[in-house]
Amino acid sequence: MTDRILEFLRSRREDGPCLVLDLEVVRDNYLAFAKALPDTRVYYAVKANPDPQILELLVQLGSSFDTASLAEIQQVLAAGAGPERISYGNTIKKERDIARAYELGVRLFAVDCEAEVEKISRAAPGARVFCRILCDNNGAEWPLSRKFGCAPAMAARVLERAHSLGLVAYGLSFHVGSQQPNPKSWDRALKASAAIFRDLAERGIGLQMVNLGGGFPAKYLKDMPAVKTYGQAIFRALRKHFGNRIPETIIEPGRGLVGNAGVIEAEVVLISRKSDDDPLRWVYLDIGKFNGLAETMDEMIRYPIRTPFDSDPMEPCVIAGPSCDSVDVLYEKQPYPLPVSLEIGSKVLIEGTGAYTATYSSVSFNGFAPLKSYVI
Ligand SMILES: *Cc1c(COP(=O)(O)O)cnc(C)c1O
């Protein structure tokens, strides 16, 4: 929460939920990453929030960009970055999209299997590829499952294939899971990475780069270690596993770069109980899973919610969204404490909502408009 955001909301009196994002916070976050990992290039994970003003600011600050689609590549180019600052980091790409990205000048691509390497060798000859490896997402509040990456034992073969097809076997990537509270999580993946570097070096292929992915947390309800602590733990792990031959490294922060820069203002639409002896109040907001708060899925991300009555006594509540889909309940398994004095019509502020909100909002489910977004 910043004074600029509060001032903006006070002057606007919005009808309907809206996200307000403070670019000064994004700038501070970027500089904190650059300082904590001085030898590492930042590739902003565009999917976290592709707002043009955020991209333009990051272009000015010298950032590079991790993109997942042609549209994201075009958004980054439109913000003024050259294609040499773009990684096409999705391991799942149509061959014609690879060809279009190549035409636009993109030369860095993610893979996690030989079939994708073959597509890239045809559509983007000579490009650099890095292979994503599976890694332990333990402890992450938004773990990334097994959808992306291959077993470390397979990665060497994938990169060898790339090399034999005339691509540059450039390096490895992994993601320790989003909202990763443990800075030591990078250690095991870096150990596996170093082993693949050695293995391929013996076969005459010199990898150059490790992509350390995202996972850097935003602050929600719990305190999280500072970026500096992550930087130190990562550097120690690099030293431990690569000795004095530390490779080029990149990070791809999304949440950690923009999450805490945004606040959503929402309104209480209804407060009720389900029976006379229901111990829980149900608080329905004008925002839910379908218009911005998709990351409350399985109650994984628990946002701080501020109300005008936070000094009053609290009671546990179920919080739900406004749509007519019964999955549109934000917190029920673990009820959320809200002030007893909260009223229908009260405005609430949902903090830490700069990442993974606006673009997750549906086009118009039940006629509810997509989340409005202001970048200031
Ligand atoms: C989503 C994503 C990120 C960003 O992750 P955060 O945890 O938000 O920092 C980074 N890299 C890749 C490949 C991603 O898909």
Task: Please describe the structure with a list of short key phrases separated by commas or semicolons.
single chain, 376 residues, alpha/beta, TIM Barrel, Lyase, Ornithine Decarboxylase, Chain A, domain 1, 2 domains, eight-stranded mixed sheet, eight-stranded parallel sheet, 10 helices, 16 strands, 30% helix, 22% strand, elongated, binds pyridoxal-5'-phosphate
Structure at a glance:
The protein has 376 residues and is of the alpha/beta class. The protein is 30% helix and 22% strand.
Descriptive overview:
- There is one protein chain.
- By secondary structure, this protein is α/β, with parallel strands linked by helices.
- The chain has 2 domains: 89-253, Alanine racemase (TIM Barrel, Alpha-Beta Barrel), CATH 3.20.20; 260-375, Lyase, Ornithine Decarboxylase, Chain A, domain 1.
- It is 30% helix and 22% strand.
- The strands form 2 sheets. Strands 1, 10, 11, 12, 13, 14, 15 and 16 form an 8-stranded mixed sheet that branches.
- The two termini are 13 Å apart.
- The model has no long low-confidence stretch (mean pLDDT 97).
- Pyridoxal-5'-phosphate binds next to helix 10.
- Pyridoxal-5'-phosphate is lined by residues 45, 47-48, 66, 89, 175, 178, 213-216, 252-256.
